[in-house]
């Protein structure tokens, strides 16, 4: 396939996805193992208090902070597709990113990136008009984390948004190289996670659910590997991914 990725391998995790008294994921325990945090902005999960608390903890841990806008679907955790107009998609992106920027401004911290959530991410991968509408809601100069080789990448390029390629530690891919997005995450064996991630960073390819090998079209983009805080055994998953990327970065002298 395409050989090893051309940049240091980094890790991002979705954080702050609790709501009120309901917890979601061991956020505090994950902080030592990640480079980027995608903080939920209130539509698919989170609330103002959780957003503020998560921002403060990420700042204290030295983690780069990104906005994680999703569809307005708390009950479905933003993992159910919805039909919205381009104007609505742009507006909900501006609204959610702006909410996080308010907290970041309060604590004098920068916004590093925007990473769409769940069904919105999948819709953007497949539909150019949806991807473009969301991109227009992202502040200029702020990178968007997304799946390379999809309509998301094309829309980022056409709207002048910076693009970072994502790979996934706890999500499977179909034969087209698209993510298999489910409402509830499945458990992964640690060795399967390591094999899944190692293949992606070393060969720029992934084994799909039908056992075919699909090229990851990451080209020369910076790469961040996504894991989910609501996956069963997420702490073990992230630790396994950390082990693989640290070894990869050391072998390839990425500092």
Describe this structure in words.
Helix content is 38%, strand content 16%. The model has no long low-confidence stretch (mean pLDDT 96). Strands 4-3-2-1-9-6-5 form a 7-stranded parallel beta sheet. A two-stranded antiparallel ribbon has the order 7-8. The chain has 8 helices and 9 strands. The longest helix has 21 residues, at 86-106. It is an alpha/beta fold and 255 residues long.
Supply the key terms.
alpha/beta, globular, 16% strand, 255 residues
Q: Give the overall shape, derived from the CA principal axes.
A: globular
Which consecutive residue ranges, at least 5 long each, have pLDDT under 50? none
What class, by secondary structure content?
Answer: alpha/beta
Let me know the number of strands.
9
Distance between the termini: 25 Å
Q: Portion of residues in helices?
A: 25-40%
Beta-strand content bin: 15-25%
Helix and strand layout, with pairings?
Elements: E1 9-15, H1 27-30, E2 36-40, H2 48-61, E3 64-68, H3 86-106, E4 113-114, H4 118-126, H5 128-135, E5 144-146, H6 151-159, E6 163-168, H7 190-203, E7 205-207, E8 213-215, E9 223-228, H8 234-251
Helix pairs in contact: 3-5, 4-5, 5-6, 7-8
């Amino acid at each position: 396939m395409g050989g090893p990725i051309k940049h240091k391998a980094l890790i991002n995790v979705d954080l702050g996805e609790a709501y009120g008294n309901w917890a979601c994921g061991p956020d505090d325990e994950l902080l030592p193992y990640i480079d980027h945090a995608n903080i939920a902005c209130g539509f698919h999960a989170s609330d103002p208090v959780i957003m503020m608390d998560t921002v403060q903890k990420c700042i204290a841990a030295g983690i780069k902070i990104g906005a994680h806008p999703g569809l307005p679907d708390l009950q479905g955790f933003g993992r159910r597709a919805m039909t919205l107009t381009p104007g609505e998609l742009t507006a909900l992106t501006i609204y959610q990113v702006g909410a996080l920027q308010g907290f970041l401004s309060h604590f004098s911290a920068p916004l590093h990136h925007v990473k769409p959530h769940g069904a919105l991410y999948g819709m953007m991968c497949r539909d150019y008009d949806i991807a473009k509408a969301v991109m227009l809601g992202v502040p200029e100069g702020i990178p968007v984390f997304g799946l390379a080789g999809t309509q998301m990448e094309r829309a980022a390029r056409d709207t002048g948004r910076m693009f970072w390629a994502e790979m996934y530690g706890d999500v499977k891919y179909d034969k087209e190289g698209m993510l298999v997005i489910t409402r509830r995450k499945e458990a992964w064996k640690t060795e399967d996670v390591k094999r899944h991630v190692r293949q992606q960073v070393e060969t720029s390819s992934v084994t799909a659910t039908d056992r075919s090998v699909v090229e990851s079209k990451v080209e020369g983009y910076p790469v961040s590997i996504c894991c989910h805080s609501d996956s069963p055994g997420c702490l073990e998953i992230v630790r396994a991914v950390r082990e693989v990327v640290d070894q990869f970065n050391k072998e390839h002298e990425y500092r």
